[in-house]
Amino acid sequence: MNLSMRGELAVAYTSGSQKARNVTEAWGADNFYCPNCSSQKLNWLKRNTKANDYRCPNCEFWFQLKSQQTRIGNSITDGAYSAMMEAIKNDRTPSFFFMQYELATWSVRNLLLVPHFAFPPSAIIQRKPLSPTARRAGWIGCNIALNRIPIEAHIALVTERQITSEKEVREKFKKVKPLKEISAAQRGWTLDVLNIVRRLGKPEFTNEEVYAFTRELEKLHPDNRHVRDKIRQQLQVLRDAGFLIHVSRSEWKLK
Question: Are residues 26 and 120 in the same domain?
Answer without folding.
Answer: yes
